[in-house]
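Quick sanity check, Protein STRUBBELIG-RECEPTOR FAMILY 7:
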Amino acid sequence: YGQHLLVYEFHKNGSQHDFIHLPDEYSKPLIWNSRVKIALGTARALEYLHEVSPPSVVHKNIKSANILLDTELNPHLSDSGLASYIPNADQVILQNFGT
């Protein structure tokens, strides 16, 4: 009670990091079209969080281990534990974030 949980859909391909660095006997190297698809999908997700979502959200932990890949290699952002809401999108952010 009083706890909040995030539940993510299971993605068979795991994270982008695992897909690239921990290949199994069934995996194939990512072709350039797939790499571009993952990069554009991730960029669109970030654009949504920053520009469309009310209120705006800053993820603050984008890395290959936090990008989940579904069976069609569509990216899904995960691990939003460090995310912050921006109460007023017109506000200027003066602090740098990153890892």
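Posting the structure with no commentary besides this: The longest strand covers residues 56-58.
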